[in-house]
Amino acid sequence: MNKIRVAVLCSGGGTNLQAILDAQAAGTIASGEVSLVVSDNASAYALERAKAAKVATFVADKKQFPDRRVREELISAALEERGIGLVVLAGFMTILSEAFTKKYDMRMINVHPSLIPSFCGPGFYGLKVHEAALARGVKVTGATVHYVNEVCDGGPIIAQKAVCVEEGDTPETLQKRVMREAEWVILPRAVELVCGRLLSREKS
Ligand code: GAR
Q1: How far is 54 from 48, CA to CA, in rounded Å?
Q2: CA 196, chain centre distance (Å)
Q3: What is the DSSP letter of 115?
Q4: pTM of the model
Q5: pLDDT tens-digit map of 150-173
Q6: 15 CB under 6 A from ligand 1?
Q7: Any catalytic annotation for residue 130?
Q8: Closest atom of ligand 1 to CA, residue 17
Q9: Burial of 9 (0-12, 13-18, 19+ CB in 10 A)
Q10: Inter-residue contact 180 to 113 (CB < 8 Å)
Q11: Cβ atoms within 10 Å of 72's Cβ, excluding its own
Q12: What residue's CA is closest to ligand 1, atom 14?
């Protein structure tokens, strides 16, 4: 069966990458195949996860290439070289330019650790999202997977899952629960859904 070649872009631990790799191994991602893991951080643990799964890696390190345009050009070339059909941002901490997002219009998705439109946009990433949710006192938060366009966290929503905030939560405990109960569940499902959509678009 024809599969969409998927690139996963990560900056840190890569637990969302792991959830995608596990879903692929379990056969629940069948319409796509992770062909490349890209990082803007040479010491990201996500790169070790990729190597363990025998997936090719590409690094455009922020320290080595501080100019975002240069990193984007390097990444763009790596994606084209491998015929990537879907780009997945999974904890990728660079906000991509409009030129880059246009290239992958409806072929790039992102996972965000809140129920968009709450706690999203520039400055809301990683633990900061959960700090803001706790500071506001929300009782329910969650995660969102959305298409990426030129507006940071503003593209069409594909999937969301709510998670309850518990008494005594810290940003760290909340982050962990949102990952386990929401991100690792909806991201692999969204990858399969979007790869399926892209495959049927190829056929028509
Ligand atoms: C995840 O919680 C992801 O949703 C978040 O960073 C974490 C990466 O963890 N992404 C953002 O905040 C993007 N705005 P991981 O490297 O273990 O997947």
Answers
A1: 10
A2: 18
A3: -
A4: 0.97
A5: 999 999 999 999 999 999 999 999
A6: yes
A7: no
A8: 18
A9: buried
A10: no
A11: 19
A12: 125
